[in-house]
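Researcher: Please translate sequence to structure tokens.
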Amino acid sequence: MAALIDTSVFVESERSGYDPATVMGRLGVAADEPVALAAITAAELYRGVELGDLAYRTERLRVINDLLARFAVLPLGVAEARVFLRINDHLKRIGQSIAAPDLLIAATALARGWSVATHNRRHFDRIPDLVVLGPPAR
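Model: Translation complete:
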């Protein structure tokens, strides 16, 4: 099954020193499956650049641009917006709201029938019908 890569995968890749493909393999993403990022993931990665000092920003921007050149970035369209609202409303009704960026990632995956590869199962496991790849929630 195709997988949408959550921001946490790139953070773990940076922390561990492993290539993102290695980290994704450890999460259960098959090497021959399509992978991509949601547009909000690209925004989160760029936000990390902006939070650093100037020396950090220059290097981080290079790394992020290299990553984004390697992976397709899927846009947020009408189908994703409708799924976002459906899961957001459902989670609010049951008292399990999660941050909007994670909802947008999940909506992008669900709208396409994809899974989500993440180190943040705690949030994504709350979303009905979403296939989540990653280590057990802590």
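Researcher: Any highlights?
Model: The radius of gyration is 15 Å.
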